[in-house]
Predict the 3D structure of the following.
Amino acid sequence: MVPKRAVSEQNGEPIVWVVTDGTAARRPVALGSERIDQIEVKSGVMAGETVIINAPAGLTDRARVRVKGS
């Protein structure tokens, strides 16, 4: 489950942004059930990966990002 705010659309398909080695990576995802403000990600993201919530509109693959609190 991820926050619904972590899921956006690109070309009509759901995507999630994750942080890998300090860079953003766009991941197409398959979605499942929803609960209040959370949504199940059936594939595309692995447990333990850092998901970007409220990704900025201009975010691109391999853009350098900083995780808050790190």
User: Anything to note?
Assistant: The radius of gyration is 12 Å.
